[in-house]
Design a protein that fits this description.
Helix content is 47%, strand content 15%. It is an alpha/beta fold and 112 residues long.
Length: 112
Amino acid sequence: MNILVIGAAGDIGQAACAALKANHTLIRAGRSGGDVHVDMSDRASVDAMYARITDTFGTLGAVVCTAGDAHFAPLSDQTSDTMMLGMHQKVMGQINLVLGDWDIWLMADLSP
């Protein structure tokens, strides 16, 4: 099965890839490296990534996301701006991945 791993170069992404690589074909994605590039916070970038994947690798079986910027600090040091960074990157990034992928799932033959 083709599995897209977004954030594959990070610590958690590397661990996910190590666990999956023996039984699956991995497509690694990141902002600046990997098989394809993507900015999860930009819906057009997400759509372009999925189009490249479909053209190059075919149908996806799964998407794993371990990416997204956040401001790591004690709660007392957080501001509205630092909290919004995480919301924009992690929350909206995940939503963009699902919305951008929706057409691919609708086109896929998921029959057993």
